[in-house]
Amino acid sequence: MELKWVRRGEPGALVVEDVERCGVHYLEFPLLASSGLVSHGFATRLGGVSQGKYASMNLSFTRGDDPEHVRENYRRMAEALDVDMERMVLTYQTHTTNVRRVGREDEGKGLVRERDYRDVDGLITDVPGITLVTFFADCVPLYFLDPVHRAIGLSHSGWRGTVGRMGEVTVKAMEKAFGTRPEDVLACVGPSICQDCFEVGEEVVGEFQRSFDRKWWEELFYRKSSGKFQLDLWKSNEIILREAGVLPEHIQVTDICTRCNPRYLFSHRFAGEDRGNLAAFLCLKGDGEPG
User: Fold this and answer.
1) What contacts 24+ positions apart, CB below 8 Å, involve 61-69?
2) Which of 49, 61, 136, 137 is the most buried (most CB within 10 A)?
3) Angle, nearest 10°, between helix axes 233-243 and 166-178?
4) What are phi and psi of 210, to 5 degrees?
5) Exposed/middle/buried for 211, CB within 10 Å: 0-12, 13-18, 19+?
6) Please, which pLDDT band fits residue 288 given cuts at 50, 70 and 90?
7) Are the C-beta atoms of 88 and 102 separated by less than 8 Å?
8) How far apart are the C-alpha atoms of 95 and 117, rounded to whole Å?
């Protein structure tokens, strides 16, 4: 399938790569893949068994899809990523900046076991073999790897999470839990809606003006003749990561937009509620005890 890459070809552009494995198409970041420490991916719509408006790789149990189709989609993603489906841990997202540390007692929650938590938009762990899972249909996935302390984080950051500086919150949670130093972190801003597709009102821009220093405003949004604004969530999250202490050379930013590629990726701005959900996956390799 032909993809629309937002910035591909520009000097210095950082990109995600399209991967096909076991009949499943997903996106991955070279920065994380080259570490050799994690299995990761961002699901596309391709390679699953869901039908109709959910076709074909819907990974949400809450949108009305056949649960057996969703479970089979997870099985296929697990095979493609070479991870254990029964050790996946799923968020319960409500646009918060709450980050939960998960361990062996959480394995399978949200997929093969009931979750005993809610209002969690970010997950961190240092347990090898646990796969963190978060959900998307235009919002921003944030991937984190601490290669020194062998720890990972995965967070969901829509505009509310971005205003709340979810990237910084996740780095600080890893620092507290694992001793992570921001300068060691490898961080990726995943596929989500691009600035040209993300129109917002004055009230949303006002929230960003309160959260970000004035020097960034020209880079983050511009006003149109209609009075509406176009907002750049990719740049916003990149700035948050840098201000949290992550080194610029350790940050990789997507160049693929969910709204620009509705046949390849689910997009709320394109389809509204008549859609499935995408998911991000991140797993620390190895089966040993945490370091």
Assistant:
1) 63/273, 63/275, 63/276, 63/277, 65/276
2) 136
3) 30
4) -75, -25
5) middle
6) very low
7) no
8) 14
User: Are the C-beta atoms of 42 and 280 separated by less than 8 Å?
Assistant: yes
Structural Rg of the chain based on CA atoms = 18
User: Where residue 291 falls among pLDDT bands split at 50, 70, 90?
Assistant: very low
What's the CA angle centered on 185, arms 86 and 264, to 5 degrees? Answer: 55
Alpha helices, H only, 14-146? 30-33, 67-81
What does the block give as tokens for 183? Answer: 């300068």
Find, among 195, 212, 238, 291, the residue nearest to 14 by Cα.
238
Which residues, in sequence order, are bridge partners of residue 281?
41, 133
91 is written with which tokens? 């968020």
| CA 91 from centre of chain | 11
Pair of tokens at residue 243 = 């201000």
- 155 sits in which H/E element: strand 151-157
- Nearest-angstrom CA–CA distance, 104 and 86: 11
The residue assigned the tokens 């961190």 is: 124
Task: Report cis status (omega within 30 of 0) of the bond before 56.
Answer: yes
DSSP 208: H
* C-beta atoms surrounding 51 within 10 Å: 12
Measured distance CA(212)–CA(214) in Å, rounded: 6
Could you tell me the two tokens for 113?
A: 């076991």
User: Do the bridges between strand 99-101 and strand 131-136 make them parallel or antiparallel, or are there none, so unpaired?
Assistant: unpaired
- List residues bridging with 199 in a β-sheet: 230
CB 186 within 8 A of CB 202: no
Gap between the terminal Cα atoms of the chain:
41
